[in-house]
Amino acid sequence: MITRRACLQPALAGVGLWCMGGSAHAGGQLEEPLADSVRTALTSAIANSAPPIPEFAEIDQRLRYLRWLGAMSRRLVARKADWTERKEFLQTVWYESKRAGLDSTLVLGLIQVESAFRKFAVSPVGARGYMQVMPFWTRVIGHGDPSSLFHMQTNLRFGCVILRHYLDRENGNLYLALGRYNGSRGKPQYPNAVFAAARQWQWQEQASPEVSPVPGTAPGRLPGGPS
Question: What is the pLDDT of residues 58-86, one digit of tens each?
Fold first, then answer.
């Protein structure tokens, strides 16, 4: 477990291959009116800047995390050759995804699709960084500085909090939440790409997810994946 958590609802299914390299493929989140209570909650979640250092109550939890870190590091080495950079990136992905109640497998798949793991990726519509966050979010729930979205933890925190917001808004429907994240709600191309990419980041010791990715799909399974 991690000892610092934001007040975001837990639970999410995980599952990526839209782009192995090249340009970013973000359709771009759409700016929509937010209720004051929602804006306050999102702002609070963004503002809590605890460092992404995992802390565990039991040694077994720590060992499991370290095994996950080793496995993911080996898969990521072709994209991030430096060990320290890989470690900091994966540690932050793990922390921010858990903090937001998301599956780190899903978040890695989404990053692969959105930016091909490029920190300074910019889409044609202006989305920025690893999780291709649209700059308007820094004005709506942040400090108003779009350049901060090129900071690793800031980008991953915004991306995870925004995806959690969309998942809650779609009542746990990951397919629709992913479409909303991409600005293409209801179209299959983007969710299917994330589901496909995320399978490359699955790990055998990962706990079963609690939310069905697509209506009619059993919890704990990725669309088209092994039973």
Answer: 999 999 999 999 999 999 999 999 999 99
Residue recorded with tokens 């939440």: 177
Q: What's the domain range around 177?
A: 59-201
Query: In CATH, what number is assigned to the domain containing residue 174?
Result: 1.10.530.10
The domain total for the chain is 1
The answer as to whether 24 is a domain residue is: no
**In angstroms, rounded to a whole number, what is the distance separating the alpha carbons of residues 96 and 162?**
12
